[in-house]
Every structure is written in C-alpha cells, then in structure tokens.
Amino acid sequence: MPENVATIDATPQPERSKSDLSDQMSAAVERLRARFGTGVTRSLEWREKQLDGVIAFLEDHTSALTAAMHQDLGRPALEAWIADIGPSIAEAKYVRKNLRKWAKPRKVSLSIATQPGKARIVPEPLGVALIIAPWNYPVNLVFEPLVAALGAGNAVVLKPSELSPATSTLIARELPSYLDREAVAVIEGAVDVSTALLEQRFDHIFFTGSTNVGRIVMRAAAEHLTPVLLELGGKSPVIVDDDANIAAAANRIAWGKGLNAGQTCIAPDYVLVSERRRDELVDALVAAWSNFYGRDIESSADFGRIVSDRHHRRLTGLLDGHEVAFGGGSTSETRYLSPTIVVDPSPASDLMTEEIFGPILPIVTVADTDHAIQFVNERPKPLALYVFSENGDAVDRVTSQTSSGGVCVNHTLFHFSPHDLAFGGVGPSGMGRYHGQAGFDALSNLKGILTKPAGLETSIIYPPYGKLKSRLLRLVT
Ligand code: NAD
Fold first, then answer.
1. Residues 106-129, mean pLDDT to the nearest whole number
2. pTM
3. 252: containing domain
4. 193 CB-near residues (< 8 Å, 6+ apart)
5. What is the distance between the alpha carbons of residues 143 and 161, in angstroms, rounded to a whole number?
6. Which tens digit of pLDDT belongs to each residue from 215-233?
7. 231 catalytic per annotation
C-alpha cells in the first residue's frame, strides 16, 4: 500500500426499497437527458473539457487509486499503473488528440444512379449512455468506456462494481468534480441498483462483465431497443505449437496468467500442447513463476489476491478431484491461491467448461496443432486466442481456421493495448468493439446524409415509365 494514503471507507450503502431505487434512477437519467437535450454535449469543446477532466482526475488520484486497488485486490502498485491507470490516461489522451478528426463528416462517393448530389456520414452523439463495469480492472474498465462515451458527446451514467468498493467509492466521490455534473452521474451499487438502472431507457448500454449477466443486460435493452456493446468473458485458449520457442512462451503465458492473479477477461484460460513439448513447457512455466515471484509465492508483493471469499471458494472448488502438477496452495483468510497447473483434466470437468478467472492453468495434451484447432472450434468462440509458434504456416492455420474476438501471436494480453486495434468479443464472448476510433464510432450515431441539388430535376425516375426510361433505369441501377 502506498504511504500517506488513507484507507477508503467503502461501507455498503443502506438498503433502499425497489420503488425508491426506480424513482431515484429515473430522476438521475431524466436530469442527464435534460442536459443532453440542451445540445451542450455536442460541442467539441465540451467533449475536450470532459476528457481533460478525466486525465486530470486520473493524474491527481494516481496514488489514491493505486491504494484503493491494493485494498480491493491486493494489486501490486506497478500492475495498478500498467494495467489500469496508465492505459486509461493514454486512451483519454489519444481520443482527445484525434477527436476533431473522427467527428468530422466522412465523405462518401456516389454511384451513377444516386448522382447528382453529395453524401456524407456525420457522427452524432447518441444521448444518455449507461456504462456498467466489472471489478477486475476497476479503473481501466470504467475509464476506457467512459472516454469513448464522452468523446462521442454523450451524457453518461456510470455504475462501477460493488466488488471493488474502495476503488468504486473513490471514483464516485472524486470524479464528478472534474466533469460536467449535469451530464455525468456515478452511481454505486450492486444488482438491485443495476436492475433499477436497466429498467430506464438509455440510448446506449456499454456492459463489461460475465456472459450470464450480459444476457440479462441485453434482455433489458431489448425493451427499449437500446443498442448494446457487450464485453463478456469465456475461456481464452493458448495453442503452443511444436515449433514454439518454449522458454519465451512459458514466460509470456505465466505472466498473462499471473497478472491480477489470473482475474483477467483475456487471461490464458488453458493450454493445448502436444506430448512432444508438454513436459518441457510445464517445467518452463514453473520456472517462470518461480523467477517472477520467488519460491514462496504467497509472500511475494508482486502477486495479487482473489477478489472475494465466494470467488476463492469457487476456485478452490474447481480443483476438487484433480491431481495438481504444480501449486494448489491456498489460504482462505487472505484469499491467496497459488499459480497452479493441472495436467489433462477431463474435458467435461468444471475446470474445462467454466471460465476459470483465477491462477489455475490446465494443460491439455493434443496430438498436434490441427487437433488443437479442432478442440477450440468444438467450444464457444473465445474472447482471445493465443498461439505460440515460430512456424508461419502453423500460425496462419490457427488464425484462419478459428474464430475469436482477438488473437495475440507469440504473447498474451498485449493485443488489448494498441489504441487502434479494435477490442471486443464474438458470439458468447461479446459484441461490438471499442478503443480508439472503434469506441468513438460505437458510441456515435453514424448518420448518413445525402444532399441533392434543389433545382436540378431528375425526371427519369418519375412515372410514367416508358420503354426508354425503363431501359435507361435498368442500365444505371
Ligand atoms: P458480473 O457480470 O458479475 O458483474 C459486472 C457488473 O454487472 C457489475 O457492475 C455488477 O454489479 C453488475 N451485475 C451483476 N449481476 C447483475 C444482474 N443480475 N443484473 C444487472 N447487473 C448485474 O462480472 P464480474 O464478476 O464483475 O466480472 C467478471 C466477468 O467479466 C468475467 O466473466 C470476465 O471475463 C468478464 N470481463 C470481460 C471483460 C471484457 O473486456 N470482455 C473485461 C473484464 C471482465
């Protein structure tokens, strides 16, 4: 925990009745809608000011946010910076820099049939957006969606997660004074608050969380035909080809699984490898974790903790009945769970059917990379897929014969970072894309406008349709 930073008092809020909650949420949304209705959020100056506010908040509160994430997740200070605060500031600055370019009308060429005229796509704000965030990256997954929504000129209701209460309380308490309070509301709460919010009509819902809650969100959105961007979870596989550099692969998989104690939506969930390289890979993974965290991982300041007792019990339960090849150590009082390897668990076990979301890594033996591809394709489309190989042909086969939200070749997690590498899932791992311009576009109405000259009449389209008109029209349309 950084020095000179007080612990955040994140005592849960008192219970409110269902109708009270509904009324409060409705009033909050109406207030923002009224502000949006004034047109103030459309101006690029307003948007830039909000992004400046986001940057200033994050810079002013870097050490307090770091402490809050330590309180919530035992998050090491450097990980709080590299995975949460740093990328949020970088994204806000990137959107701030490119906003005017993205907001410009985009010229579209016309076919002969639609000439004369001029066509353009004009991005306009959608209205009031709802952002519901998870706890695992409680800064990044609040601020990157917020930056997209504000950059696109929307009013925003932001609901951070109740499972990272120190971070959420800090954001709710301090962020509003950096932003237009009439256009941005931070509302803390758990399922009851989320449910009351989802009853309201929004113009966009940006949800990051589990696939099951994603379904609830989409059902609620359907009531109002509200567009959704769903950033969901699932099992992200790693294929280690026979031609992989095993030492590098092991370091990168161990790092991707160790960050935030495996509680990352795109953490490597399990590894597929042939018997020819399996034991070498297991040894290299064990060596990598030992190099990162020392022999006594529990006492390492660089390894995080599981977010809640419930999740700790869920994870230790996933190990029931499995032989552990490495790790397995656990302390329920501190919610510690060691990086753990299980070799060849049954494909029907919970370990191989549920998203793990913790530091347990199943290693599954397959005949070869083509069988690994088949294994992936027999399961729901993942959010991320990793392939390690120095053989271009094997990499091409994996990337072209599988479907996933994104792919990272010869590393893990890194594809989340580039501003212009649109991020998102496919099928049960999500829908829609964000980061950079993709986020700006997702939170905008890309309105198509065709302008025809007022005086130049194209009477050929009007009845009566004689033979000549008919022939000409068939030629050009
Ligand atoms: P979660 O779905 O339990 O909760 C996410 C948010 O939804 C929280 O704010 C919570 O209050 C709210 N919520 C929970 N239950 C609800 C309900 N019944 N109705 C309405 N709202 C409800 O997810 P989590 O445990 O916070 O996060 C872990 C999950 O999120 C994992 O599955 C992970 O893969 C996924 N995730 C995805 C991404 C991504 O970018 N695709 C990023 C981080 C996490």
1. 95
2. 0.94
3. 237-424
4. 21, 25, 159, 187
5. 13
6. 999 999 999 999 999 999 9
7. yes
Residue of 13, 141, 161, 307 best suited for mutating to test ligand 1, as the one with most atoms within 8 Å of CB:
161
Q: By three-state DSSP, how is residue 337 classified?
A: strand
* pLDDT above 50 for 241: yes
Residue nearest to atom 11 of ligand 1 (CA): 190
Query: Of residues 144, 162, 188, 231, which has the active-site annotation?
Result: 231
The 10s digit of each residue's pLDDT in 274-300 is 999 999 999 999 999 999 999 999 999
Same domain, 210 and 315: no
Query: Of how many residues is the chain composed?
Result: 477
Q: Residue 161 domain-assigned?
A: yes
Q: In terms of domains, do 342 and 385 share one? A: yes
**Residue 382, both tokens:** 């993942």
The answer on 211 and 67 residing in a single domain is yes
Residue pLDDT, tens place only, 324-371: 999 999 999 999 999 999 999 999 999 999 999 999 999 999 999 999
Looking at the 3D structure of the chain, how many domains does it have? 2
251 shares a domain with 166: no
Any ligand 1 atom below 6 A from CB of 141: yes
Residues 101 and 214 occupy one common structural domain = yes
Q: What number is the average pLDDT over the span 240-246?
A: 98
- Residue at token pair 């959608």: 126
Domain assignment of residue 95, yes or no: yes
Any ligand 1 atom below 6 A from CB of 195: yes
Cα distance between residue 454 and residue 456, in whole Å: 6
pLDDT of residue 4: 40
Whether 408 is catalytic:
no
Distance in Å, CA 75 to ligand 1 centroid: 19
212 CA from centroid of ligand 1 (Å):
8
Domain assignment present for 152: yes
Q: Whose CA is nearest to atom 34 of ligand 1?
A: 233
The answer to whether residues 346 and 304 touch, using CB atoms and an 8 Å cutoff, is no
Helical axes 18-37 vs 191-198, angle rounded to 10° = 50
Q: Is residue 216 in a domain?
A: yes
Same domain, 361 and 438: no
231 lines ligand 1 (CB under 6 A): yes
DSSP secondary-structure letter at 240?
E
Going from the C-alpha of 117 to that of each of 124, 309, 457, the distances in angstroms are: 21, 63, 12
CA 420 → CA 20, 158, 184, 294, 376, distances in Å? 42, 24, 26, 36, 27
Q: Which atom of ligand 1 is nearest to the CA of 430?
A: 41
Query: Same structural domain for residues 397 and 433?
Result: no
